[in-house]
Each structure stands twice: as C-alpha cells, then as structure tokens.
Automatic annotation (TrEMBL), chain A:
SUPFAM superfamilies: WD40 repeat-like
SMART domains, A to Z: WD40
Source organism (scientific name): Cavia porcellus (Guinea pig)
Keywords, sorted A to Z: Repeat, WD repeat
Similarity annotation: Belongs to the phosphatase 2A regulatory subunit B family.
Superkingdom of the organism of origin: Eukaryota
Gene name as annotated: PPP2R2B
Annotated PROSITE patterns: PR55_1 (PS01024), PR55_2 (PS01025)
Gene3D superfamilies assigned to the protein according to its UniProt record, in alphabetical order: YVTN repeat-like/Quinoprotein amine dehydrogenase
Gene Ontology cellular-component annotations: protein phosphatase type 2A complex
This protein's name: Serine/threonine-protein phosphatase 2A 55 kDa regulatory subunit B
A GO MF label: protein phosphatase regulator activity
TrEMBL record, chain B:
A GO CC annotation given for this chain: nucleoplasm
Top-level division of the source organism's lineage: Eukaryota
InterPro entries: E2F-SERTA_domain_protein, SERTA_dom
Protein name, per record: Cell division cycle associated 4
Domain SERTA: 30-77
Species of origin: Cavia porcellus
Pfam families (UniProt xref): SERTA (PF06031)
Length: 444, 241
C-alpha cells in the first residue's frame, strides 16, 4: 500500500485529523518517534499505521520549521478470528518500535495482541524506463517490432513511499502482547505478553526463545501478570519487566536461558496508612521505561510516576503525583473501569523531564532537577493560535478559582494514555483519543 | 450492587437494630459497602467477554480484590466474637459474610456456608444461612476464570440468579473439572458459572461511602503548580496555525 507523499497544510494547533470520519477505529493506540526524531509513527485501533515526517528546515519559511506531515499510511494488522477459541483477535496496534536506521529505508516493528510484524518503509523517486520487452504502460511489445536493444535508464518520478511487511512473527504468544523492545545489538528484540516474554532474532520468524515464563502450573494460582518490558538501552543482556503487583524485575540473559530468577527486584514497601481494597490495583505498573542514560527506570502506576535508580532496589528515588485528587474517587473509578487505564510515561532526551498523561485531555510534565511540574491540556478549544499553552490546574476542594477545574468536572472519557518525546529536541506528540497533537518549542 | 430486595432488607435490619431511620440517603455500613464491592467485582468479572479475549491483567486484579475482601470477611467472621468494630455490625456480618470463594486447592474450609443471596432475598431466620455440606465444597470460580468454557451454550445466557450460580458451583465435581481442562491452556475464563442477575445500576451512596472509608485522605497540596518558572526554558509550547 502506497501513498503519494503530500504535505498536510494548515494544521490547526499542529493537530492532525485522520482523513476518515471519526470512528472507534481511529483511536490512536501508540505513538513513537524514531531514533533521530525525523519520523513519528502512530498506530490505531483499526490496525493502521500512519507515519509523519518532519519537514526539512528551509530559509524561506522559518516558522514552518520542522512541521510534521503525513509520510506514509498503511494497514499493518487486520482483524483475525481464532477458530479454536472462537474469539476475535483485535487488529489494534498495541506498540510500535523503530529500528535504528542502517540504510536508506526505515524499519519498524508493529504488534497487535498476537503477531509482531517488521515493516520496511522506503522511498522510490526513480523508475526505470526503456524496457525492451514491455512498453511504457507495461504491456508486452510485439517481438516483431523490436529491432534494437536499449539499456533501461532510471528517470525521476514523483516520490512514492512504500511500506512492505518484511517479517511476520506469529504464533508465539498465547496471551496478549503488551510490549516489544528492540535490543541494543539491533539483531534481536523481545515481545512480552501477560505471562511470557520471548526473544526473537529479526531474521528468524519460525522460532523464538522463551526467556521469562511466570505462568503457574495451576492457573488457579495466578495472581500476577507481566505488564511491560524493555531492554536496557546499552547492555544487550539486560532487560526489565514490570508486574501488576507494582514490582519490577531486572534480568540478565547471561545468567541462564530462562530468566526465572531475577537479578534485581524493585519494590517499594507499602504505605500502611494508604491501604485499601484498591491498593493493589493502583500499584499495578502500566509502563516501564529506561532513561536514555540507562541508569534509571521510570514506572507509571495509576496515580504516580516513579523514578528508580538501578542500584537501589528497595524504593524509588523520586515519586511524582500525577493526579492524587483521584485517590478519594477510587471506588467510582473502579466501577467505571477507569482504574484499569494504562497510562504510559516518557523521558525527554536529556532525562531531565518526564511526561505522562491524565484525564480531561490533561498531560503532566515533571522537571526532575527543579522539581517543578506543569499540567497542560491537549484541546483546540482552549488554545489560541501562536499562544503558549496555558497551564491548567485542578481544584481539589474549597474555593475554585476562575481558571481552575474541579475534580468532579473532569471528563474521564478524555484520557491521554500515549505520549512521545523527540529524542533530542523539545517536541512532543500527544495522542488524545483520535487526535494527534504535536507541540514544540517557541521559535524566537 | 444489591438485588433490590436485599438492600431494602438490610436497611430494614439496620433500622430494626439501631432503632433509627436509616433511609436510603445514609451511607451504608462498612460491611454492606464491602459486600457491594464484592458483588460489583463479581459482576465485573463477567462483563468483558463475548467476541474478544478478556484482558487478563484486569481479571487478575479484580480476582485479587475479591480474594482480599473474602479474606477480610473471613477474619471478621472468625474474630467477631472478640470485638465487633461497630455497632449494628454483627448481625449484618452474619448476613453477608460468605465463604463463596472457597478454594479446593487449600482444601475445604470448615464451615463453608453458601448463602442465598438471590433475588428471593433472605429466606427464614439468619442461622439457616449456614447450612454446610462439606462434601460439596464449591469449586473456586477462580480456576474457572482462567480456563476455557467447554459448553458452548452457556455463552449466551446471562440472566441467572445468584443462587442458581452458587448451586452450580457447589455441585461441580472439582476433579472432573480439572480433568476436563487439564490440557487446555487459554487465557480466558468460564464466565457463565458465576453469572448474576444482579446487574443493577450503581446504588446511590455506595461509592461515596466506600471511597470515604476505603481511600486515604487526599493529599492537601494542589496537584500542579501554575508558574512555569524554570520550566520555561525547558518547554515553551507554541501553538501555531
């Protein structure tokens, strides 16, 4: 499936609407910059991947510097039906991870609940002309009319971006895949489902190694699942995985083939004063991310973001409250299932700021050095063009000031689960249901 | 999430016990709230299914919550003789305290009552609730949660009353179930053994009351600071047309 590259102009608030009318399948389910930040990929509930490319800076249009425009769109996964279990397999893209660029083409992994695919995205801007046996429309020429031989030449054509599936890694997961992570050796990657983690070689699709298996022999004893997993950014033998009980395990693949025993175990002791029936649910980790430096890991649970030093297992070094005002609403959030929402978290390029989403289309940023934080909103109604986004504030109780919003007015259907931060610049991508917002630094 | 008859009865009991007008607007007692949470959790374990495999993480978390409630109910039931923690609680505990999730793995627990919590409300005087048949320990719905349901016809029916379901649990022969599922390995569960007819909308006051006792006090500080300060040079957000 190809798409002529075209610029999507006049992006309001740099917000990019998918061309189709709003449908449940347009809900964005993952957002990821590539390693240079030139490309931004989104996956949606309908199994589509849309890749945006940053415009080259030009002297003529200084303030159009670095706009992201649609580069390629393709259908990555289709809905499937598991006949054995009589169940549908959703085509929703759970995660996209880019491979580092090694030649002119771009490679990414995209996964739904069961199958990982390696996609190659490449440009074609020349085409051969002057075939001997075919004419320009591709029809076979009558051999009797061919009197001379010629050498086909490559002539420029309109730029075409093609996405082709190069590998399909299927049938390795009984449970739902929640994470994929490319190893720093660029030869292997891992895929994690609720109970198992598998290691793949990019070249081999019919085999994978199982490196973590927490499935109990008796499923009646199942009390904990894997929620996220990631390779260390530099050490290709090291990875972490998080659990629904709020723990993180760091494993070393050199220790044994099956990493059943962790090398490190990160868990914060429970605060007895905060204990409730919902304590375990809100401690479940929804995302885990290594810092770019590899020294820290960040985890997101329902109410907080925590930063852990790899050298200290007994508690995090930093804890940030994302929306603590929800603590008194946990029963209602349990009733409407919001308590199970899985928020992601991201580092900025220098590991000095962390960002995560919340409800009401709010997202939060925490500066680790100054300890300042800010709440912003991804919404067109509240932003004027060329203005700096105004910080938002949630009023917890008592008098509500003019610009504040009270907890009871929050819209829990507008949740920001997926965000991404450019690897080196202050450009962020925020997915608000089926809208994508891209914000960047003010240009002076 | 009570059956309507049940709640009224409980409130009536409260009124009778405490001699005061409880009314529907008052916050239910701790044990009632806890029971409601348990019922809500059981309903939740049923809701996500049909065409797509249910979310295993969510199911595990809900099941763990159910187990926590059950364990606390057990503790309260056992230690009730020593010091009831609030007035009017003891008889209600007997009413709602259940061992419905007895696990065969741990062996049949002594005194494993299966109360009748269906729409028919409470039958007869309270002590009759504790008919125990130790030979018919209900198989843990936990196990049936994760294994595949074999009879296809169960998939469609929803509206069984809770007492029918508990009877089903009671009478299932554990070992035969395990034989049936021993070679199956799948991540979704037999929903229909625990169907409930108690799918009513949320009762007023439940979550308010539950939130107030279940959660710690919200942190006094505001959740964000409004001045960007040094954050300016880190992220200044531009909105362009």
């Amino acid at each position: 499936q190809t798409l002529d590259k075209k610029a999507v102009t006049s992006l309001i608030l740099k917000e990019i609407h998918f061309p189709k009318p709003k449908a449940p399948t347009d809900i964005i389910s993952t957002v990821e910059f590539n390693h240079t930040g030139e490309l931004l990929a989104t996956g949606d509930k309908g199994g589509r991947v849309v890749i945006f490319q940053r415009e080259q800076e030009s002297k003529n249009q200084v303030h159009r510097r670095g706009e992201y425009n649609v580069y390629s769109t393709f259908q990555s996964h289709e809905p499937e039906f598991d006949y054995l279990k009589s169940l549908e397999i959703e085509e929703k893209i759970n995660k996209i991870r880019w491979l580092p660029q090694q030649n002119a083409a771009y490679f990414l992994l995209s996964t739904n609940d069961k199958t990982v695919k390696l996609w190659k995205v490449s440009e074609r801007d020349k085409r051969p002309e002057g075939y001997n046996l075919k004419d320009e429309e591709g029809r076979l020429r009558d051999p009797a009319t061919i009197t001379t031989l010629r050498v086909p030449v490559l002539r420029p054509m309109d730029l075409m971006v093609e996405a082709t599936p190069r590998r399909v890694f299927a049938n390795a997961h009984t449970y739902h895949i929640n994470s994929i992570s490319v190893n720093s050796d660029y030869e292997t990657y891992m895929s994690a489902d609720d109970l198992r983690i598998n290691l793949w070689n990019f070249e081999i699709t019919n085999q994978s190694f199982n490196i973590v298996d927490i499935k109990p022999a008796n499923m009646e004893e199942l009390t904990e699942v894997i929620t996220a997993a990631e390779f260390h950014p530099h050490h290709c033998n090291t990875f972490v995985y998080s659990s629904s009980k709020g723990t993180i395990r760091l494993c070393d693949m050199r220790a044994s083939a099956l990493c059943d025993r962790h090398t490190k175990f990160f868990e914060e002791p429970e605060d007895p004063s905060n204990r409730s029936f919902f304590s375990e649910i809100i401690s479940s980790i929804s995302d885990v991310k290594f810092s770019h430096s590899g020294r820290y890991i960040m985890t997101r649970d329902y109410l907080t973001v925590k930063v852990w030093d790899l050298n200290m297992e007994n508690r995090p070094i930093e804890t940030y409250q994302v929306h603590d005002y929800l603590r008194s609403k946990l029963c209602s959030l349990y009733e409407n299932d919001c308590i199970f929402d899985k928020f992601e978290c991201v580092w900025n390029g220098s590991d000095s700021v962390i960002m995560t989403g919340s409800y009401n289309n709010f997202f939060r940023m925490f500066d680790r050095n100054t300890k300042r934080d800010v709440t912003l909103e991804a919404s067109r109604e509240n932003s004027k063009p060329r203005a700096i986004l105004k910080p938002r504030k949630v009023c917890v109780g008592g008098k509500r000031r003019k610009d504040e919003i009270s907890v009871d007015s929050l819209d829990f259907s507008k949740k920001i689960l997926h965000t991404a931060w450019h690897p080196s610049e202050n450009i962020i991508a925020v997915a608000a249901t089926n809208n994508l917002y891209i914000f960047q630094d003010k240009v002076n | 999430m009570f059956a309507r008859g049940l709640k009224r009865k409980c409130v009536d009991q409260e009124e009778v016990e405490e001699g005061a007008l409880a009314g529907f607007s008052s916050i239910p007692s701790y044990s009632l709230q806890r029971q409601s949470l348990l019922d809500m959790s059981l309903v939740k374990l049923q809701l996500c299914h049909m065409l797509v495999e249910p979310n295993l993480c969510r199911s595990v978390l809900i099941a763990n919550t159910v187990r926590q409630i059950q364990e606390e109910m057990t503790r309260d039931g056992v230690g009730r003789g020593t010091a009831p923690q609030s007035t009017g609680r003891a008889p209600l505990d007997r009413l709602v305290s259940t061992e419905i999730l007895c696990r065969t793995v741990r062996g049949p627990e002594a005194g494993c009552p299966v109360p009748d919590l269906g729409d028919g409300a409470i039958q007869g005087p309270l002590p009759e609730l504790y008919t125990v048949d130790s030979a018919e320990v209900p198989r843990s719905p936990q196990s049936s949660l994760w294994e595949m349901d074999s009879p296809r016809e169960n998939r469609g029916s929803f509206q069984k009353s809770l007492d029918q379901i508990f009877e089903t649990l009671e009478h299932k022969n554990p070992s035969s179930m395990e034989d049936l599922f021993s070679d199956m390995d799948s991540s979704y569960y037999d929903l229909d053994t625990m169907l409930t007819g108690m799918m009513s909308s949320s009762k007023p006051g439940l979550c308010d009351g539950l939130d107030s006792f279940a959660a710690a006090a919200p942190s006094p500080g505001s959740s964000c600071k409004s001045d960007l300060g040094e954050l300016d040079h880190v992220v200044e957000i531009l909105v362009e047309t």
